[in-house]
Give the backbone structure.
Amino acid sequence: MDEVFLAVILLVDATIRVATPLVLAAFAALYGERAGVVDIGLEGKMLAGAFFAAAVASSTGNPWLGLLAAVAASVALSLVHGFACITHNGNQVVSGMAINILVAGLAPTLAYAWFHQGGQTPLLPASARLPQIHLPGVEALSPIPIVGPIYREIFDDANVLIWLTVLVVVATQWVLTRTRFGLRLRAVGESPAAVDTAGISVTKLRYQAVIITGVLTGVAGAYLSTAHGAGFVRDMTAGKGYLALAALIFGKWRPWPTLFACLLFAFTDAVQVRLQGVPLPVVGVIPVQFIQMLPYVLTVLLLAGFVGKAVAPKASGIPYVKER
Amino acid sequence: MARGMAGKGFGMPGEVPGWVNYALLPLLNLLAAFVLSGLVILVIGENPLDVLALMVTEAVGYPEAIGYTLYYTTSYIFTGLAVAVAFHCGLFNIGGEGQAYMGGLGAGLVGLAMTGWPWPVVAVAAVLVSALFGAAWAWIPGWLQARRGSHIVITTIMFNFIAASIMTYLLVDVLIKPGQQSPETREFDPGTWLPSMDRALGWIGIEVAPSPLNLSFAWALACCALFYLFLWRTRWGYEIRTVGQNERAAVYAGISPSRNIVLAMLISGALAGFVGVNEILGVQHRLLLNFTGGVGFVGIAVALMGRNHPLGIILAALLFGMLAQGGGQVSFEYPTVNRELVMVIQGLVILFAGALENLFKPQVEALFRRPPKKNEGTRNEGRA
């Protein structure tokens, strides 16, 4: 019984660790899309964040400077996206795609030229990685059944960015529904003309939104290379940006359901690692690939209206032109 | 979605001369992309002009290089046409990658199954089956868009990942050559291979250097011609373009948008599927993982740069073919440059030719604007 319980706790712990970058990226996209700016460039921005975090952390030995660099790089890409889509009314999907391809090339190119390790950054020592937060009272609580192991395995020694992510989730829900900025943000994604008529700048709001997107994707990238991992490796995001996008849609562009979707997708990933080659009752061994594609299949089914109905913000993907 | 994709020239005739829209602006955007790429090369400590010179030499400087360049071009023509036909219907097909992957599966199954058949029969079968597989993979997102309103950009992205998972499963667990570690099928019977261009031209007495370029290049050019005839010379093409330009007008004209959306996606998927004929039957001669290597995404850039016209697509595919071949070779000469530099340039070209296509437009249009005709004066003042 104890073993099963511990296994479950470890599974939850793994889920949280896998979910963190997904949650950050999905919430990043949530700001952009609720403001009407579609962002399929999450993948590229995360990858840029991951690279610059690792590169700076490795050369300065300071992970916080790395985090700052990640955010700066990611925000810079966000501004490029904004410049193309908001200022020049460019196609948002094309712009996002371009950013993904650009960074998929740029990160290994720079890594190759700067570190001479075949497109990676050097392995980071523990001191150059973002710290885990040690909570008090682990020893004292440990003997207590259920509470003790949960406290020890899940809450203690969680990375500082995991706590930050929890904060982001709560703050996003609050900002979106309880603040003036949130109301305007949602309005600009539904009906920019109305916002414009009310004398509020659509351009400014959308830029604010993409900057938030940049900050959060930068943090997500830094998490991958300096918190979860210990250095940048080629293609380290491995489709997480798209998965986050799927989670956002699966969560119908709302904070709590999006969080749930991220946890669900992360859970399938955590289970998948443990299920490899293990025969299950009735169905036998499920090939890993079928579990891996589950989030994508679910998202398609949702978009098709077979599992609930996802309605995107009305003006997302459409550039706002005053004269129209 | 495809707003402005076909060039504003269609909607607003007489504003600027056609060549400004179709030649000058794309070239300016390309130039901007190359200048930034040069900066990246400077940052990693090399001389951009030297790298560029080497790239051009390695892409078109000698016969073998030209063969390689055209081999890359072949795949880019297929995916460029695939993206373009969807654009003409107002759809954004990001799923070229997955459709090409599935097309490769079709071509691979034909190659495995038709041992002993003469190559022309195998080639025709592979063209048909890869088209079928690619079209089937595009049909689902197309149908979902047409009937259920599911956003095709998202569904095609998801289908790229689903295709990747399915292919990994098939190659790792099902089609793998027994007793082998790497997930690949056995090699096809050499008699079924699609002849390379040097072999085919050898039959009629023309000597060219050996390269992966194969007969599918001729098929790609034929597809360009068929593409033109279909879109601009048939009723179906007219209907697809009408739906793309104005869905409501199409409905009033008695044209069914949903039927045309599905049709455009079927054609799009089939065209992307032909990449499999080039790669699998023409070059690799076995089915393997990740043989597409981003051709579906490059197709977007090709269609954007080529302004969705077959001639433009051939030119743009040629440019990207040169980039792929020349850029790949540069990495052998320069120790600090690796293959991914090509992706940097590709990304920048997509950014400038696609998303920032309006960057220089106001200034350039102001330079070349024709004197306004009667009653048109006020319209053109919009965005000075």
Summary: The mean pLDDT of chain A is 86. The first strand of chain A starts at residue 132 and ends at 133. The radius of gyration of chain A is 20 Å.
